[in-house]
Amino acid sequence: MMNRKACLEVLKTHITDEIVISAYSTAHDWLAINDRPLNYFSFGAMGLASSHALGMALAHPDRRVVVLDGDGSLLMNLGSLVTIAAQKPKNLVHMVWHNSSYEANGGHPLPNPATDFAGIARSSGIGKVFKISEMANFEQQIGSILKEEGPVFAEMIIEQGPLGPRSYTEMYSPARRKALRAALGAD
Q1: How many structural domains is the chain composed of?
Q2: Which of 16, 41, 43, 121 has a beta carbon 3.0–4.6 Å from 171's, enabling a disulfide?
Q3: Secondary structure class of 168 (helix, strand, coil)
Q4: Distance of CA 23 to the CA centre of its chain
Q5: In this predicted model, what pLDDT tens digit does every residue of 34-72 receive, in sequence order?
Q6: Among residues 159, 118, 142, 51, which one has the least CA distance to residue 42?
Q7: Whether pLDDT at 187 is above 60
Q8: Is residue 38 within 8 Å of 176, Cβ to Cβ?
Q9: Could you tell me which residues are beta bridge partners of residue 156?
Q10: Which runs of consecutive H residues, i.e. helices, occur in 34-126?
Q11: CA 162, 166, 168, 170: dihedral to nearest 10 degrees?
Q12: What domain range is 140 assigned to?
């Protein structure tokens, strides 16, 4: 089992001009590790990070889009996997951090902690699927996973992170949204 923050530190070394979409607990960690204009934070409607990522990938086919999704969040919108497989965005990498809990909501366990998200993605029609549970494997594979032609799905088996109240105020700041729009050339 891996530590999400340690994985994100490694991921940071591979991120250049990609759009990174993150949700809930992972978003807090990612913001602390790699605050940058091309970060998009998905909050308010659990489960929509994968849908936001698909929309971003289709709207910006010239940019790689990496979504940092949670297992509980993806359970709220499993249908997005079928839609992603049907649309076949070549620039989308969907990473799911599987800690078997709704961490952002107090750490309540998933209804089935043994859910095989990689298997669900594969069954949905996503051809490039990875499942990683050891840090050495993550360090070795993440660079090539990010370069694969999408859609790509990667399930990371991680330990539960810290629980506690989190403020999403900074992630919703108008300045942050304006910086993202400018980085995408939308201003």
Answers
A1: 1
A2: 41
A3: coil
A4: 7
A5: 999 999 987 766 789 999 999 999 999 999 999 999 988
A6: 51
A7: no
A8: no
A9: 97, 132
A10: 49-59, 71-75, 79-87, 117-124
A11: -90
A12: 4-183
Q: What is the DSSP string of 108-164?
A: EEPSSTT--HHHHHHHHT-SEEEEE-SHHHHHHHHHHHHHS-S-EEEEEEB-----S
Any long-range contacts for 57-64 (C-beta under 8 Å, 24+ apart)? 57/89, 57/91, 57/92, 57/150, 58/87, 58/89, 60/19, 60/91, 60/184, 61/89, 61/90, 61/91, 62/91, 63/17, 63/18, 63/19, 63/91, 64/17, 64/18, 64/19, 64/91, 64/93, 64/146
CATH of the domain at 42: 3.40.50.970
- DSSP element (H, E) containing 97: strand 92-98
Of 42, 43, 160, 163, give the one whose Cα is nearest residue 101: 160
pLDDT, tens digit, 9 for 90 and up, residues 132-175: 999 999 999 999 999 999 999 999 999 777 666 666 667 777 88
Residue 63 three-state SS: coil
* Token pair 């490694």: residue: 10
Tokens of 8: 């994100």
Token pair for residue 165? 């109240």
Which of 4-18, 73-87, 102-116 is predicted with the least confidence, judged by mean pLDDT?
Answer: 102-116
**Closest by Cα among 155, 173, 171 to 23:** 171
Q: Are 69 and 41 in contact (CB under 8 A)?
A: no
